[in-house]
Amino acid sequence: MLEAINLGCVRGDRRLFEGVNFSLTPGTYLQLQGPNGSGKTSLLRIICGLLTQAEGEVRWQGANIRSLGEDYFTALTYLGHRNGVKDELSALENLRVSNALNGIEINNNKAREVLRKMGIGGRESLPARLLSEGQRRRVALARLAVCNTSVWLLDEVLTSLDRAAIGLVRSLIEEHLSGGGIAIVATHQELGLSGVSLQRLELAT
Amino acid sequence: MLRWIVWRDLILAWRRRADVLSTLFFFVIVVSLFPLGIGPETQLLRTIAPGVVWVAALLASMLSLGRLFANDYQDGTLEQLLLTPQPLYLIVLGKVLAQWLVAEIPLVLIAPLIGVQFDLSRETLLVLFVTLLLGTPVLSLIGSIGAALTLGLRGSGVLISLLVLPLYIPVLIFGAGAVDASIMGSSPQSNLYLLGAITVLSLTFAPWATSAALRISLE
Question: Which candidate in B11, B75, B211, B216 is best for mutational testing of the A interface (most A CBs within 10 A)?
Answer without folding.
Answer: B75
